[in-house]
Amino acid sequence: MDDQTRMMxxxxxxxxxxxxxxxxxDSVRKQQSLGQPQQDIGDILQQIMAITDESLDEAxxxxxxxxxxxMKPALFSVLCEIKEKTVLSIRGVQEEDPPDPQIMRLDNMxxxxxxxxxxxxxxxxxxxxxxxxxxxxxxxxxxxxxxxRAKLAQIRQIYHSELEKYEQACSEFTNHVMNLLREQSRxxxxxxxxxERMVAIIHRKFSSIQMQLKQSTCEAVMILRSRFxxxxxxxxxxxxxxxxxxxxxxxxHLSNPYPSxxxxxxxxxxxxxxxxxxxxxxGNKRIRxxxxxxxxxxxxxxxxxxxxxxxxxxSAQASQANSPATPNSGTSSSCYTD
DNA sequence: TACAATGATTGCAA
DNA sequence: TTGCAATCATTGTA
Length: 338
Description:
It is found in: Nucleus. By secondary structure, this protein is mostly helical. The protein has 14 helices and no strands.
């Protein structure tokens, strides 16, 4: 006898139940003795399905009646037997998922940006770096810094509230499914392992939704960062003194306007800018000078004169320092050097 | 407001 | 990696 036939045989005893008769073995016996044709499994299933269309009280009553039915243990044991055979085929399906590298990357990024985890200066550091790279004044950078932080805080807040919603929905849904399964376990065999597996499936589904949230949050942070890190958007001209220092070096090394790394560092220090800004400046200057030497000739002459005067001053200072007969030499030369 | 000046970025070559 | 050349985006000025 195959499983289905056995089940059908077991279930035939439940056939022909009327709503009022359910739970009343006498009425079943009466119906059987009256020679009513055996009804097929469809009837009983229909009755079970009909429970959902009934009011809560009616459904409860019918459920109770089905649970108390004398054939219920037979049905349950048949289901157990079938289960035992089928569970072997699904056993292999259950395996532990390795941590998703994509989720790990997103988590790391959100953590580094200060969106997830404890609120700290992750994003602030990025904003400060952005301001420094742009060469903005301390006041400007602090304004942008707070602006960046405010926007990041906004993203953080949205992220956390959405995450909370997802987690709440997940736990509600999990509870709901677990209650359903527990309830169903009265009529069909459901092991705790199966409930666990179902919970894991639900969590996987919700975690894929979470991944989408994390992904869009990361995108928002990247857009915010790129907006703040794009130095072109908040370019500031170097101050006059810095430009003079750079021009002086450029025109005094016109035959080879390529400062060494040490010279770049020195110039950067003098001008209050970064080494890469010095490199940019020399790159731009060389190309623009080469393109239009005529235009820069006047400027070149000006700095040549300035350099000559400075050199003369230095040598005068040196010669005066070597002559002890000259009084107040320091005060007279300082008016040229300044 | 148009335009020149200027600092930064990008793509390519050496 | 560095420098060049082209280009972008912003600032400063007439």
